[in-house]
Specification:
mainly alpha; Helix Hairpins; 4 helices
């Protein structure tokens, strides 16, 4: 019995679900990467602001000092706003990864079921073929025995036929007229 259509359909569904789950995970990972890059850019912005403050302290530019302080303050506000989003995104990625791995396991289970069914079908086909070969050989064996019996009961050569007729007591002239 071949693998059922419902099993193949289940495999296709599991494959599609796994693909969708993988794409969702990749999207969440790219979002997390984008947020982490924004946090890194915020840290760099904070460092630039502090360097500006240090440079203004050396050369006495009051506007540079204020701009540096404001730059540093804006970067720290951005970093504090990004931190909870990164934490939420990280937990979302973890959940989506678990979901993806679950879908992957389900697909592999369906594949395993199909492989086992195909292996069972292959074994059954082999048995059926062997049974056919055995039946053919058995019939050939009996056919050969039947042909032997026929050959023994009916003489094959002219000499054998003559000797069979003479055993029956039929004279030679009559034997020739019967031929």
């Amino acid at each position: 019995m071949p693998v059922s259509r419902s099993l193949r359909r289940l495999l296709r569904i599991r494959d599609i679900e796994e693909e969708q789950s993988r794409l969702t995970l990749e999207s969440a990972l790219s979002e997390l990467t984008r947020l982490e890059q924004a946090l890194a850019a915020s840290g760099e912005r904070n460092r630039r602001g502090r360097r500006l403050v240090q440079a203004s302290a050396r050369n006495g530019e009051l506007l540079d000092r204020v701009a540096g302080l404001e730059e540093s303050y804006a970067a720290s506000r951005l970093a504090s706003a990004l931190a909870p989003r990164i934490a939420e995104s990280t937990s979302n990625v973890v959940a989506l990864r678990e979901q993806y791995l679950g879908k992957r396991v389900e697909r592999r289970q369906a594949e395993t079921l199909i492989r086992e069914a195909e292996a069972h079908d292959s074994v059954e086909d082999g048995r059926r073929e062997q049974r056919t070969i055995d039946d053919w050989y058995h019939s050939k064996l009996h056919q050969t025995d039947a042909e032997k019996d026929t050959r023994e009961s009916a003489p094959q050569s002219e000499l054998e036929r003559e000797s069979a007729l003479s055993r029956k007591g039929i004279p030679y002239r009559e034997r020739r007229s019967q031929s």
